[in-house]
Design a protein that fits this description.
Chain lengths: 357, 300
């Protein structure tokens, strides 16, 4: 009897623990399922764009100048004589094994091209988001702390400009002012022409590679080239991050525990940074994640303006040459990175915020 | 009884009077908001410019004058001239027609489409809801601009295809809103009353659910228009949107790229037009939200 009584609460705890585990497993399973379905959806869309919309998908892959023999070979290689669902399955299989086809304009496999161009985009977007966080968060907090002041108004205008200035235009104006007039920064490209190709790529990111090789001159040259495009990207994430930070902070500052802290005589600086800012760090992660994903998109335009050898530049060149394999490959990679960033920030939010568990 | 009293009556005697009264209240609330007035004025000017372009523009938008190439802004050419001697001011004026067409058509295609998908998903629930919202979520979790680029690449460059591509990528946001609104009213008593009276799903959705979604839809569409303008200009800049010699603002910036270091005005001037018009939509959308939906003030 005594034993039973003792084990009863233990059982209850065990059952509760099992339930929690099962629920967590269920959430994890559901999460993996949504990620999987989203990727499948992305594949379905690129498949649709590449195979269904064009009147002659073969022509869009081999190009106008192909001979009849090349055309026929491509038609069979693409499996266009098979039903659509079989084509889709083999397409998914190809993508999963890393086969994105061959680019008409560069003559290389699209996967090789993409892995060669990705580091440049990654480097620029990452620097951009760092600039956006470093300036956007303090600006947003300050705007909320001094709601209605001229600073708040100015930050609101900056936020709205972030939604209404074309990124490529800002890049061009930046080049005209800071490169052509003031000579403060380097021009288009990643390095000055006489430094080009001197650093053996390790990571593909020129800032890191030049440091690894101990080429300080090249490092500073690379900095002078990346700073303008990264700042333009940073402006857009800054606008969004500041706007969201402000709105989160206003929510917190109107809460009762903030009033209590103020009544107790806690210094305003402590109220703002410790009481009000701490709880909003978690939702800010989602904002930063979304903004980072958005920068990947923005970099397509920026890279065109700055002749930046990244995926965006590769994509626009492919678009103009109607190089469909390259277009769909880049779309797939950018889309996949976009999905991953979105989902990871979602997971981080759930893990870090106890209320969302 | 003055018109104003009739509009503001506490107990309107007809549906028309109630609607007119509500519209009047929203309108006066907007008039009290300086940003709303500014945004409204900008959009009004855009519409008037587009309609009266032939009379406003001092020169032809496509007429070339090679003796007047790349002239800086002056009293004769307000925004200077481009590499073919065309007056940039006239081209910007004519470009407003293209921008307005794109914005209008994208809104006309994507908003009703999203509205319908969202209302159907919310009303029927179950598997219909899961499938429709699954598709919506997939579209929402993909980058809009890249998707639009890929669609235009497959469809072929041009304004019509750009409009289709932008519309395809912008309906999902409206579907989400419409679904959320539908869920809150689906089980309302008046809906049950209509159903008891024999109203079928089509009648309920079209006559009793969709009208209630419109106010949040108008806000969202107005806010999104800035993004649509930027995407369209981006497509034009890359060379996939409006084709030369059409005076599309993004394409004009793209042509000015070559001269940005010495003849800055060629690329800069059309950019100002884009910024002003986008800001106009932002201002109006922001203030509309404050007036029509005060709960969400300050949120995203």
């Amino acid at each position: 009897m005594a034993l039973d009584q003792q084990s009863a609460p233990l059982d209850a705890a065990l059952i509760a623990r099992n339930k929690r585990l099962r629920r967590q497993a269920f959430t994890v399973g559901g999460f993996i399922l949504t990620v999987f379905l989203t990727f499948l959806g992305l594949l379905a869309i690129t498949f649709f764009i590449g195979r269904v919309i064009p009147i002659d998908p073969v022509l869009s892959v081999v190009g106008d100048r192909a001979t009849q023999a090349q055309y026929d070979a491509a038609r069979i290689a693409m499996g266009l004589d098979r039903p659509l669902w079989q084509q889709f399955i083999s397409y998914v299989g190809n993508v999963l094994t890393g086969d994105l086809g061959r680019s008409v304009s560069t003559g290389r496999a699209v996967v090789d091209d993409l892995s060669r161009f990705f580091p440049a985009t990654f480097e620029m977007a990452t620097l951009g988001i760092l600039i956006g966080i470093a300036l956007g968060v303090p600006l947003g907090v300050t705007a909320a702390a001094r709601q209605g002041s001229w600073l708040d108004q100015a930050i609101r205008v900056v936020g709205l400009l972030g939604y209404s200035v074309p990124a490529f235009w800002l890049g061009l104006v930046g080049l005209a002012v800071f490169y052509a007039r003031l000579r403060w920064v380097g021009g288009p490209g990643r390095l000055d022409i006489f430094y080009d190709g001197l650093v053996q790529p390790v990571t593909g990111m020129i800032l890191i590679d030049s440091l690894i090789r101990g080429e300080i001159d090249i490092f500073w040259n690379a900095v002078s080239h990346i700073i303008l495009p990264a700042s333009v990207l940073g402006f857009f994430s800054l606008a969004y991050i500041a706007r969201m930070t402000r709105s989160f902070m206003l929510d917190q500052l109107s809460q009762e525990f903030v009033t209590t802290a103020r009544v107790k005589g806690v210094p305003e600086r402590v109220v703002i940074w410790r009481h009000a800012f701490k709880p909003i760090r978690v939702p800010l992660i989602t904002v930063v994640g979304l903004s980072y994903a958005g920068l990947l998109e923005g970099s397509v335009m920026i890279e065109t303006v700055f002749s930046w050898p990244g995926i965006g530049n590769y994509l626009t060149t492919a678009l103009l040459n109607a190089d469909m394999n390259a277009v769909l490959g880049s779309t797939l990679v950018i889309g996949a990175v976009f999905i991953v960033i979105n989902k990871v920030s979602d997971v981080l939010y759930r893990v870090l915020d106890p209320r969302a568990r | 009884m003055s018109t104003r009293d009739w509009l503001l009556a506490d107990s309107p005697t007809s549906r028309m009077q109630a609607n007119a009264g509500r519209a009047y209240r929203v309108f006066t609330a907007l008039l009290r908001n300086p940003l709303a007035v500014l945004g409204g004025l900008i959009i009004l000017v855009l519409v008037l410019t587009a309609i009266f372009a032939p009379w406003i523009a001092p020169y032809s938008p496509t007429g070339q004058n090679l003796s007047a190439r790349l002239l800086p802004p002056s009293s004769q050419y307000w925004m200077g001239t481009d590499e073919l001697g065309r007056d940039i001011f006239s081209r910007v004026i004519w470009g407003s027609q293209i921008t307005l067409t794109i914005v209008g058509l994208v809104a006309l295609i994507s908003a009703p489409l999203g509205l319908l998908v969202g209302a159907i998903a919310g009303f029927f629930g179950g598997w219909v809801d899961r499938i429709l919202m699954g598709i919506t979520d997939i579209f929402l979790s993909l980058p809009k601009l890249i998707l639009a680029l890929a669609f235009v690449a497959a469809l072929g460059p041009g304004i019509n295809n750009a409009i289709i591509a932008i519309a395809i990528t912008s309906w999902p946001a409206y579907a989400r809103i419409a679904r959320a609104e539908t869920l809150t009213i689906r089980n309302a008593e008046y809906i049950q009353a209509v159903q008891l009276a024999g109203g079928g799903p089509i009648r309920v959705i079209i006559q009793h659910i969709l009208p209630l979604c419109t106010s949040s839809m108008i806000i969202r569409v107005t806010l999104d228009m800035a993004g649509v303008i930027l995407t369209a200009a981006g497509l034009g800049f890359i060379g996939l949107g409006a084709q030369p010699p059409l005076p599309e603002w993004g394409a004009m910036i793209s042509r000015g790229r070559t001269f940005i270091l010495d003849q800055w005005w060629v690329a800069t001037m059309p950019g100002f037009a884009i910024i002003i018009v986008s800001l106009g939509f932002c201002f109006l959308g922001d203030s509309l939200r404050d007036v029509l939906d005060p709960k969400s003030e300050g949120k995203n």
